[in-house]
Design a protein that fits this description.
It is a single chain. The protein is mostly helical. The protein has 6 helices and no strands. The longest helix is centred in the middle third of the chain and has 31 residues.
Length: 198
Amino acid sequence: MSEHNAGWATPGPAGLVALAVACFTFYAILSGTVESTGAPILGIWLLGGFVVQIAVALIELKNGHLTGGNVFLFFSAFFMLVGGLGFIFKYFAALNGWPVDTTMDGWAWLPLWITLILWTPAYLKESPAVMSIVVLLLDVAVFFVTFMDMGILAHSYAHTAAYFCFAAGVGTLWVSSAGILNAAYKKTVLPMPGPILK
């Protein structure tokens, strides 16, 4: 996330809360804690996350934060907007018996997962350790979601993906809260160790 300057402050903490909402709701769907009939509600929450994350992306890019700005940009578009609309559409398609080949989702997730993997070293170098751990957890979660959606992995791996999503969500709340509290108190309230890679 960008540092506070004379211009706009970073909305990164809000973007991380939106990511936590996505992670927790993905956990709920993937783990079976919430039935598939909750998919339209999940879709609506993801659309709300899109609004937050597109704003974060644009402001982070304006503030010169290449990695975070671009990640929030593609998260806002594909994980939030497309994901939200997709959950709503697939629910109504199933309800009405519309034939839809949902393995297309896996093929769309594949370049997102590859991008996330290839961009992870930038996070390991530029971001606090907790944020880097969040990205590593998402690398694993997105792997399972991608290959389950493609039909390559059995749906029995959904619980594994769910736990990685939940852990990533907890981590994003830590990073978000540290950003707000440490700035407000002008001291370390929640520790944020430096980057994993030097």
